[in-house]
Amino acid sequence: MQIKLDALDAHLAKGLKGLYVVYGDEHLLAQEACDRIRAAARSGGFTDRSVFTVERYFDWSSLLGASQSMSLFGDRQLVELRIPTGKPGKEGAEALKTIASADNPDVLTLITLPRLDSATQKAAWFTAITGTGVALKIDPVERAQLPMWVNQRLSQQGQRVAPGEEGRRALTFIAERVEGNLLAAHQEIQKLGLLYPEGVLTFEQIHDAVLNVARYDVFKLNEAMLTGDVGRLARMLDGLKGEGEAAVLVLWALVEEVRTLLRIKRGVAAGKPLATLLRENRVWGPRERLIGPALSRVTEGALEKALALAAKLDRQVKGLSGSTGKRGSEPPPNPWDGMFELAMTVAHSGNPAPAPGRPRR
Length: 361
Hints:
DNA-directed DNA polymerase; transferase; Helicase, Ruva Protein, domain 3; Rossmann fold; 55% helix; 8 strands; Zinc Finger, Delta Prime, domain 3; single chain; 3 domains; P-loop_NTPase; DNA_pol3_delta_N; alpha/beta
């Protein structure tokens, strides 16, 4: 049985099941979900706790023994199984199916896993434990959801932002500072609770207190490009450079998006349905909603020029010297400026030059 994270408390209030599976890469939310299950288990009399972490040469028989036996003191027990790789192996798969089929009211099993691909979610061992147990998929908090998430966390500690534009500005400021680093975001929000009393927080208070702890994912660059969010695009590129991300990887991510847009643009011009082109180019999730507006903003000629610039940047980031064209067509000396120019082809079509006020490195 699958339940959503926001339904967990209501579920636990109705009574505990014998098996829980928490999976996903948002560590803060996964840890909080596990803490709530543990607290409910303690209240339900599961006071004896055993923890197993699957590593190489893990002894699955020890786990099965713990899940089938009573505590020496007769207490009900919580058995936690952590599989950091998400791959239990053949022996582990059989053990998990055995656990799924067990019916011991004195043992509650909590299994934690990372984010799983679709093939793993269809595996027999996973369908067995989610079929008899309760599964919680921990989805990441996307950038668009982050201001609302911050607002909810503030309200839990009795604080809120000012109404109207000032409040929206404050939530946006926090989101920009903590994007991609939810654990640090949680800590920054807790810090606001320690620094200021309950009630309304001003933008100045938030600006003075919240540190820049954002961690950017190179594979989220496409979202900033497609939405035309120039400020976020500049922050992400500056952040990736500051974190030491390889310029080759960043360039590859940008170029792949430009190539995808060009293929879809040409397909639409040839009369193919957009939905078919999106499937053919493996576009889904948030990108599926963003591709349409981006296509209407950018021209085929601009995308072709962007790929020509990308070819020069590719030589540049790989340290290959030598002119590739006329002096006026050369990319900027700093390849990160060149990548910003490349991204701006999609983000702000018709004006690929760096936007005024862009943070300098």
